[in-house]
Design a protein that fits this description.
There is one protein chain. With 560 residues, this protein is of the alpha/beta class. It contains 21 helices and 15 strands. A five-stranded parallel beta sheet has the order 7-6-5-11-12, with helices on both faces. It has a four-stranded antiparallel beta sheet with strand order 1-2-4-3. The chain has a three-stranded antiparallel beta sheet with strand order 8-9-10. Helix 17 crosses helix 20. It is flat. It binds one RNA strand of 77 nucleotides through helix 2, helix 7, strand 9, strand 10 and helix 13.
Amino acid sequence: MKELIVSILRGAIERARAAGQLTAEIPSIGIEAPRDSAHGDVASNVALTIAKAERKPPRAIAEIIKSHVAMPAEVSEVSVAGPGFINFKMSSPYWHSEMRRAASDGRAFWKPRAWELHPGANERKKVQVEFLSANPTGPLTVGHGRNAVLGDTIARLYEAAGFDVTREYYFNDGGRQMKLLGESVRARYLQEHGIDAPLPEDGYQGEYIRDIARALKAERGDALVSVTDLEIFRAAAVKAIFADIKQTCTRLGIRFDVYTNELDLINAGLVEAVLKALRDCHLTFEKDGAIWLRGEPLGLPKDAVLVRSGPDRQPTYRTPDIAYHIEKLKRGFDLIVDVFGADHIAEHQEVVAAVKALGYDTTPIHAIIYQFVTLTRAGEKVKMSTRKATYVTLDELIDEVGADVVRFFFLFRKSDSQLDFDLELAKKQAPENPVFYVQYAHARLASIFREGAAKGLTLPADLSAVDLKLLGAEELDLAKRAVGLPEVMSAAAEALEPHRIPFYLLELAGEFHRYYNKPANRIIGPDRELSLARMYMAGILKDAIAGGLELLGVSAPERM
RNA sequence: GCGCCCGUAGCUCAACUGGAUAGAGCAUCAGACUUCGGAUCUGAGGGUUGGGGGUUCGAAUCCCUCCGGGCGCACCA
């Protein structure tokens, strides 16, 4: 639709120039859906944008362009409005054909369109989404949940658009925190055997550490009491915790294609190579026995340590991360999405700046930075901390409100807004809970078809037999709204803003509920032909909601 | 102190990336069931988009500044 309008406008401007009525260059033509539907289906602000170069009032320019518009059958009306907008109203036959396309394409229709994301691309683009990437030190928390759901939904969007998507989990199971984890498990293990072993300072206090220690005791008895090497404790913990993390992800419908371990990058010599390359570019210096990255030439607010001082000369987290991002670029991804919390933003800037300084094109790299999640129970904030045992795990949250609600709530907010997860609201099976509101609309639509079937009214196999001209303005508006969903999906994918989809679904559901509630709008009525036309529209609505929810990883129940 | 994010109706949030009269839900008040599912709907009130300045045809959106909140500012990740 937008392409059509753009080409119409381009043609009109072309003719106006040929006629000498316009002189300015043809600009890139801006197209938008007006907020107010009274302004038509599509609007353009070209006249406003070229007014200055043209040295004419925008409305006059708009009128000139309008006079040169060649109206195809798809368009029923062109008008100039407001400060100089050119508004287009699409004809009913156009909407009918869109509906027919939606109906015949079925599930394939309710997806983002690849050609809107990457116009002109003819090969299958490669996308990598790196998300979650939690080190295995404990169960996933509510905060991780937002990361996981955001990343997975971005992946779903691009997957649905036909891209070649890799979901990747980057982690480190070595290092300091892991040593602490091993020590914590060992302490608990010894305690299980009645030995007075204190948990280390800053050790992991969660109950899951005891569980791991108990499992170790059940498996190995007291064979490890005198073992001082932490490796076996660490390894047992990592194994158990990773299994737990994967299990939690599975409950949310999330899986990963690739797991990349920081240690593998180090062992492959890639981290050394990065250090050498940075040194060769004079971007490092030594101070206090450590190797530093120069902040100033990279436009960073401060210098940062790449390699720690001390006998083992361990790299900090950011050095392998630089190597990792270079590897990602080398793997040939057209789009790389990194999902992480606001606390990691400085690191990401450092990493990207360093990669760029080494001569790589970093434009494929995009970051989704989400703000923190707070949990509210009975109007009170729930405090969360991984180290202490006070946090609420993602598993507990899923237990309490269900996977559908968890996913929907995490997506129902712009990622750079803080997210307050209201447990009371999440559990309510009432219209103020957006998940139920949308799902209910779907269940209601499903019930129409059940009722229709019971009354012997079903859509014919040959859908072209249904006369869409019988539909009224209200029904057409509903269908328009539904048919606009793929465009919203495309925009959401392109902007990396999945929240647009749940908001759109909520509006669509609301519009349907309002329609449905009017007695005059009974879909199954005495007039068989009209009933079929309305069922046709209802089928599109149902598919739209189901398709939208599917993309969000939320179920679309037939009955509730 | 420095960097990033946020500030929109009493509350929780949108606003298609600079467009037309800033919109939803909740809460409040007043209404609608002979319903294909009332887990729904109709109506009303509620705003100087934190304050001030700037940019331009046009600003919640971009720039400057101040105020308020969050997150970072580790040889932890």
